[in-house]
Amino acid sequence: MKGFSGVAKYQKYCRQAVIKDGYILMNPITGHRAHIPDWENKWSKIQNNMNSPEFWENYGYMKKYDPYCEEVLEIKKYFGIKSDIEKQSINYRIQNRGAMCSKYAGILLFKWIVKNNLQNKVKICIPVHDEYNIEAPEDIAEEVALVLQKCMEKGAKPFCTRLPLSTDIARLDDGSLPNYWIH
Known about the structure:
This protein is mainly alpha-helical and 183 residues long. The chain has a domain at 7-97. The protein is 58% helix and 11% strand. It is built from 5 helices and 4 strands, in the order αββαααββα. The chain has a two-stranded antiparallel ribbon with strand order 1-2. A two-stranded antiparallel ribbon has the order 3-4. The chain is elongated and about 80 Å long.
């Protein structure tokens, strides 16, 4: 991470925020959150207990003489859950932003289809992660592809404000649009 200090700083922020708050704020624009089960009732209490020197003294004693006692096993479980939560705090945010970009693009595309009275002509077959499989008559296929491309780029703008995302259209080697899904 030496060459990417901004990424390292962001990851550190995500890890600290989830432990402090007990949830992952996946998207500040929409307010979507992923709450950590039992955080307030169980895991934050264990974390708070760890701040005292007596805790670690007792834990060291228990770990040495009774490594399978309930307290020792609970602490091991806590650190496993904490590690998972910290990874999720980074991944959930990134995946949520991608999902929101794609969903918003789908809304924009659907509105364009309705506005241009192309229902039952242009078909949104399947949205897959960050792409759409669209069916359209050959005479308007190129226009639909370009509209979808613009919808995808516009759909990303509210969620990716610092770096505009660009898109491309899946094409065959000769530059034409395929009549099958290219992934």
